[in-house]
Amino acid sequence: MIEEAARELAARGESARRVARDPVNLPMIRNWTEAIGDDNPTYEHYAPPAMAQVWTMPGLAGQRPADDPLGAMVAVLDEAGYTSVVATDSEQTYHRYLSPGETVEVSSRLDGVTGPKRTALGEGWFVTTRSTWYVGDEPVAEMMFRVLKFRPSGVAGTAIRPAVSSDTEFFWAGTALGELRIQRCGGCGRLRHPPGPMCPSCRQTRPGYVVAAGEGTVYSYVVHHHPPVPGRAAPFVVALVELTEGVRMLAELVGVPPSEVHIGLEVRVGFSRVDGELTLPVWRRR
Amino acid sequence: MTAAIAGIGATEFSKDSGRSELALAAHAGLAAITDAGLRPSDVDGMVTFTMDANAETALARELGVPELTFFGRVPYGGGAACAVVAHAAMAVATGAASTVLCYRAFNERSGRRFGQVHTPDGVDNGWHYPMGLVTPAASVAMFARRYQHEYDVTSEDFGRVAVLDRRAAATNPNAWFHGRPITLADHQASRWIVEPLRLLDCCQETDGAVALVVTTVDRARDLPRHPVVIAAAAQGSAADQFTMHSYYRDDLTGLPELGLVGRALWAGSGIGPEDLSALVLYDHFTPFVLVQLEELGFCARGEARHLLADGTLELDGRLPLNPHGGQLGEAYVHGMNGITEAVRQLRGTAANQIRDAEHVLVTAGTGVPTSGLVLSR
Ligand SMILES: [Zn+2]
C-alpha cells in the first residue's frame, strides 16, 4: 500500500510551480545575514545561495499546496501508523547567484520512499523529495530533502512488555537472538507452550527447550480495528499459530493484508526488535 | 441448598455516575439491605470480586455495619458473578455468617474502561498482550473466529443475540437502551471492533452498582420478601485454563469450565435444562452466548444459531433468554445485574415478567474461570 502510493506519487513528477511571495530583496537579505552572522560584503549585491528556500517559504499561515508530494506521502504514512517524523539530511546545489529583483518559483517531486527500515527510533520509511528553484525556465538551485517517518512503537515505554519470570526468560532470551524456543521437559520430553516450571505430564522440574523450526499454520486470528493500540496501526492481525512441533503460539501476523488472512495460512516466524530489552516474535507469510 | 437471596439493590445504570465507586457500593448495599427488610447491623458477612476497588472494611464503615465474621473475594473478573453468591451461601450454610452482603460497584465507563487497552501484570498475560491482543473483545474474537470456521457460523448468527437483548431492553425502564431496539441490519452495519466482532457484538461499559443479601432459607422466610432459594451454585475451572486466553486446548469451540458448572448445577439442584423458566446468560460478547447454550446442553454443538433464529429464546418463546436485556441492553455490572433480574423474575416483579417463573439459570463471565446459579421460587 505504501509502496504503491509512493510509485503513484513519484510518477506524477514535478508539482505545479509555486511563486515566491516577494522578489529577491535587500531588506530580507540583510535580516537573514544578520541573523546568521554572515558579514560577507558580496551580499550587498547578491543573495546568499543558501537563501534559495527562504524566498519561497509560504509564511506562518501558509499551507502546503495540495499537489505537494511530501505532504501527500506524509499523509499516507500517517495513515499507516508511521506518525512521527524527523528530518535526516538535506543537500543543496546552487547553479548561480540570485540578484535583488528576480522572482523565483519552486516545484517539488517525490524522489523515492524506502522501507520499512528498523531504526533506533522505531520502524520507519525514508522519504526523499527533490525541489528545484527556477527563474523563468532556468533552474537556479536544487535541494534533496529526506525525512524519516517512523512508528513510535520502538520508543521505549510505549510497547506493552511481558512480565518475565525465571520460568519464561529463556523464551525472551531466544527471541532476542532470533530463535523461537519451545519448552521441552527434561524428564519426558514433552513440548509445551506457554511454558511453566513443572511438567504437567511427569511432574519433573527440569525444563529445557528446543529451537522451533519456526513454521506453522494459522489456527485462528483476529483483525484489530478499535480501540487504538500504542505502537500499532489498525487494522492489524494477531494470529494463533499451530507450529509444526505441535504447540500453539500467538503473535502479530505482519506483511499480509487482513483480507488475505485465513485459517490454514502457512506462516514462518520472524522477529521484531522493539528495543534493547524486548524482541517480539511475528508471523510472516511462508 | 439452605440459602436464599432475601434482598436486592442497585444504583441507576449510567455512563457517568458523578460519584465515587464507594458511594455507588454504599447506595446499592443499603438498597439491598432495606429491600430484605433488614438493617445494616444485621449484616455480618461480605463477598465481592477481587477486581472491586471497594474494601469490605470501607463499605462496612459507610453502611455502619459494625462487625464482620466472614469476608472473601472471588477472582477472574465477571467469572465471579455467581460465585460471590456461592461463597455467601456456603458461609450461611456453615454458620460462618448469618447475613452476607454481595456487591459489585464500579465507574466502568467514566473511570477505568475495560474496553480500552490495558497492560495487566502476570506472566500469563505476557503471551498475549505484547503481541497486540490487548482487549477483552480481541481475546474473545480469537475463539469466535475458530467457532465460525468449524460450524459455519456467521456474523448474523452472533448478531441475533444483540437483537434479542436489545428487544428486551427496549421495554425495561431500568435498561440503558430502554426504548432503543436494533435490527439485524443495524448489527451488520455497525463497525468492526476486532473482526469477527462488530460494535454491537460487544456489551456496553457502565457506571453502577448491584448488591444482594444472602441468608438462610429459614431466616429468609421470616422476612417480608418472598425468598428466592439458591437451588444450586457452582464454580468451574477446567483443564489448561487461562484467563481469557485458553488457546492451548485441543478444542477452541467450547467453554469446558462452563460445562463443568452446568453439570454441577443440574446435579446439585435436581433441576435440568427442561425445567427452566428463563435463562440469564452472561453476554459480554455475543459469540459466547451461543457456546454457552451448547455447553449447557440446550442444543448440540454448533446448533445454537438455530435456537436464536427460531424464536425459542424470545420473551414470548419457550425459554426466554435475558429478559432484562442482558449486559448488551440493560447494563454491564459484571453479571450481577443478571442475578438480580433472576430474583425479580422469581418474585414476579420484573419489567418483562415471564409468567409463572419457577426456576431461572444464571451464568457468569465466560472465557474465564466461571460460575453459575439455579435460583428457584
Ligand atoms: Zn515431563
UniProtKB/TrEMBL annotation, chain A:
<dbReference type="InterPro" id="IPR039569">
    <property type="entry name" value="FAS1-like_DH_region"/>
</dbReference>
<feature type="domain" description="ChsH2 C-terminal OB-fold">
    <location>
        <begin position="209"/>
        <end position="271"/>
    </location>
</feature>
<keyword id="KW-0238">DNA-binding</keyword>
<feature type="domain" description="FAS1-like dehydratase">
    <location>
        <begin position="20"/>
        <end position="143"/>
    </location>
</feature>
<dbReference type="Pfam" id="PF01796">
    <property type="entry name" value="OB_ChsH2_C"/>
</dbReference>
<dbReference type="InterPro" id="IPR052513">
    <property type="entry name" value="Thioester_dehydratase-like"/>
</dbReference>
<protein>
    <submittedName>
        <fullName>DNA-binding protein</fullName>
    </submittedName>
</protein>
<dbReference type="InterPro" id="IPR002878">
    <property type="entry name" value="ChsH2_C"/>
</dbReference>
<dbReference type="Pfam" id="PF13452">
    <property type="entry name" value="FAS1_DH_region"/>
</dbReference>
<feature type="domain" description="ChsH2 rubredoxin-like zinc ribbon">
    <location>
        <begin position="172"/>
        <end position="203"/>
    </location>
</feature>
<dbReference type="Pfam" id="PF12172">
    <property type="entry name" value="zf-ChsH2"/>
</dbReference>
<dbReference type="InterPro" id="IPR022002">
    <property type="entry name" value="ChsH2_Znr"/>
</dbReference>
<dbReference type="InterPro" id="IPR029069">
    <property type="entry name" value="HotDog_dom_sf"/>
</dbReference>
<dbReference type="GO" id="GO:0003677">
    <property type="term" value="F:DNA binding"/>
</dbReference>
<dbReference type="InterPro" id="IPR012340">
    <property type="entry name" value="NA-bd_OB-fold"/>
</dbReference>
UniProtKB/TrEMBL annotation, chain B:
<dbReference type="Pfam" id="PF00108">
    <property type="entry name" value="Thiolase_N"/>
</dbReference>
<dbReference type="InterPro" id="IPR002155">
    <property type="entry name" value="Thiolase"/>
</dbReference>
<dbReference type="InterPro" id="IPR055140">
    <property type="entry name" value="Thiolase_C_2"/>
</dbReference>
<feature type="domain" description="Thiolase N-terminal">
    <location>
        <begin position="20"/>
        <end position="215"/>
    </location>
</feature>
<dbReference type="GO" id="GO:0016747">
    <property type="term" value="F:acyltransferase activity, transferring groups other than amino-acyl groups"/>
</dbReference>
<protein>
    <submittedName>
        <fullName>Lipid-transfer protein</fullName>
    </submittedName>
</protein>
<dbReference type="InterPro" id="IPR016039">
    <property type="entry name" value="Thiolase-like"/>
</dbReference>
<dbReference type="InterPro" id="IPR020616">
    <property type="entry name" value="Thiolase_N"/>
</dbReference>
<dbReference type="Pfam" id="PF22691">
    <property type="entry name" value="Thiolase_C_1"/>
</dbReference>
<feature type="domain" description="Thiolase C-terminal">
    <location>
        <begin position="245"/>
        <end position="369"/>
    </location>
</feature>
